[in-house]
Amino acid sequence: MIDFELEPQTITQLKMYHGVAEQMMRPISRDCDEHEHQKPWKFFETMWSASRLADLQPGRAERPAAGAERPQAGPRLRNLNSVMTTEELCWGDAGLFLSTPNSGLGGAAVNAAGTPEQKAQFLRRFSEGKPKWGAMAITEPGCGSDSAAVATTATRDGDNWVLNGTKIFCTAGEMAVEKSEGFVVVWATVDKSAGRAGIKPFVVDHHTPGMTVARVENKLGIRASDTAMIILDNCRIPLDHILGSPEVRREGGFKDVMATFDATRPIVAAMAIGVGRAALDYVRDFLRDQQIPIRYGISPRKLTAVERDFMDMEVQLKAARLLTWRAAWMLDMGKRNNLEASMAKAKAGLAVTQITQKAVELLGPLGYSRKILLEKWMRDAKINDIFEGTQQINMLIVARRILDYGSKELN
Amino acid sequence: MIDFQPSEEQEMMRDTVGAFARDEIRPAARPADETGAIASALVSKAWQLGLVRGAIPEKFGGDGGERSATTGAIVAEELGYGDLSIALHMLAPRLLAYPVIEMGTDEQRERHLRRLAAADFVAASAAVMEPSWNFDLAALGTTARRDGSSFVLNGTKCYVPLAADSATILVYASNGAGAGEASVDGFLVPRDAMGLAVGDREQSMGLKPLATYQVVLKDCRVGAEARLGGDKGINFTRLMSESRVAFSALSVGMMRAAFEYARDYAKERKAFGVPIASKQAIAFMLADMAIEIDASRLLVWDAASRLDKGEDGLKESYLAKNYVAASALKITDNAVQVLGGHGYIREHPVEMWLRNARGIAALDGLATV
User: Fold this and answer.
1) Is A388 a catalytic residue?
2) ipTM for this model
């Protein structure tokens, strides 16, 4: 039955996450933005130990295993739960959320494409020992949205795969490769002539010889999170570090990339929504302090420009949130959500870009000042319109699906 | 618990009404738009679906079905998919029936519901809007002054659907007590009451098949028994939320109709040797339409589910309606644009949908759920 009411236990859980956002993220938010490559280790340590105590694993999206019934373990609506907690934490700080030690996108890839043994082998580390990071490397200097054009190669040599190539824009790459005992899932082609089908995910452990972090980017926003360029130069990894089958089949490897996106796009949408809500809440409180009322229900012709802007921000955010919840809920129900995930991502990325820009505008010179966080949220928000598939690539996916077109008919 | 899945019963109703909208309403839409008239056979046939009598309790001769704003929204979307104006006509008797079911006294229920549970269409209506550019539900200009045991109504109403054919019109007026919507009362006024005059049929840019009228109340005196809900009065805020949800849901159906028409056209129509849908300029417009339709529907469902939980749903329904009004205009405009010159020609329905969509932001209180 159609229902949008949160269960009491979810509300309690979200309050706890909100507490983390408010008490642990907000106080260091500005400082992490101003000092881009300085790592908030105290925050990392606290989050790491908290996550092990209280199942505080933000953004751990996963698909139900193929053919499996709804997962019995954990919350019934695991992906839905993830988008909600992600929103809460990104209300605190999206950059810190991304920099939080956990399996991250690398974990999502292992969950989407790995065997049960591989999941156990690679993910165990995130529940023991010191803080660790998982990362995923797809993008290359020569390919972004067209991930099928991946040029990094994986060549079999005896008991090893040998990886060669350059990866860029790898979120938490530095933390996963050099600053912890984490791993990076590297997408590489085993057979260039096979196109998409030849692209496979490989788990490359931290400090593996032949893998180096060549640089860490300076960014517009989400500065608490490192974005790394990783060079693979004859990097040797064990044979069983390929996720899924090494066989090159049509619709093979690339499908796994897409499966990862179906789970992570709603998470990125939720990140955007968290940032948008931070801005909206700030503006709401500000207007209240200024005794400027928001009059719901009156003639739309009587609304002031400020009221109209505020209400538009509010409803746009809500629309994005409902689309995002739906995409995550579908995944939990074992339904194919490829279209809905892209809808949510495209909507949330754009809506929150606009919401945060409007928030800066509404506060005039105060909004532009670095004394308050609005301008930072505007910078942070923009990444959600870009990574995990730009708005445009998600629109393209939506368009293909509604038109029943393939990449040949619509490109 | 969060759930996006309609119940089996809701899906069944959606499919039944959806088929009726597609097979019966849609083919009648253009002729109705051109002539301003809806075939009475079609209206009778729709009546048989139980759109009005369904929620009337059995003891008054209705089907006694459970009334749910969410179910209502799902059904309304299908009707709107057929045609917005025809749907508004078919649902108009609800404007009187539903407030009486929900907030009427026993006597009012007995008196009005039995009549509306008839075997064939019975016209009934409500007078909400007033002819002013900044007409405001929270500040009605029509007044109800208590005078001894009766009330005296004064004011001018507009866009009163089916007023000329309705035996009773539910007139909303401010009683002067309290502020905003809390001061609003409803009065069940016979059309032939002294001091009530139904004007000529109104002419609008869209929604042409829906017969609407100006209704002037000049010292129109009604007894205390005409006051909806008796001494308890009504919750006008909630009634208007129900209205916003209904109008929004109907509009989502129309948006879907426009989207599908434009999508199918774009796949057929060729330019430079390929379907125009294979050009990103067109494909992205269609993708945007699809996203906004889903977003609109979810906002409507969210508002509806709050009403079903007994809340007044003011904020949710207000924001949803404003969102839908803007989306509907954009989507129908895009539909015209996708068809290019052909979209401007009355041979295709998209220009009609654009004219109808323009009304959503301007109008209120035309439907309920």
Assistant:
1) yes
2) 0.97
